[in-house]
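Re: beginner question about structure tokens

> Can someone show what the tokenized structure looks like for a real chain? I only ever see the sequence side.

Sure, here's an example I had lying around. Input first:
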Amino acid sequence: MFGVLWLVLAIAPSDRMDWLLENGLTAAALPLWLWASRRLPLSDRAWIQATLFLALHTVGSHWTYSEVPAGDWVKEWFDLSRNHYDRLVHFSFGLLMLRPMRELIIHEPRRFSPSLIAYLCVSGVVVWSALYEILEWVVAASVDPTAGLAYVGTQGDPWDAQKDMGLAFLGALIAAAYDWRGDRVARRH
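And the corresponding structure tokens:
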């Protein structure tokens, strides 16, 4: 299903250079993800969450994050100063990708305390979020400045990268709290 969505949204994106920049990481990461999952099978829940995140990302890359229509509608409804679709995707990275990362990192959860698992997984999300922001900066500084600005998508906010990482952290904390509770209940039985 993700492949179909990706192909449909690859047709006539609003900014082809931005689309290429956004999808370069997806094109590189997806084969690695599939390779790793064959050696370390993931649950259906982890696959669904990863696919939902990739779908949100793909929608953002089709329109450029700052121009996604759903973000514009929210902007108008709440009289906001900017389109916050990118913030939703960064929050979703933490919320949705914690479980797949957890399953790739921790193969035998009963060997670790629920608190240690939560700490390691939230830390992993924060590290990947920071690496993405650094990569985004490097790519933007290396390519055509106009395309780089669309790719970074700060929309005039000098604290954009920090807010994006903070939202990924918040999403990861919520997901980790949910999993932590489930781990504690499972250990009682």
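Each token stands for a local structural state, so reading them left to right follows the chain. The CA atoms of residues 92 and 171 lie 6 Å apart.
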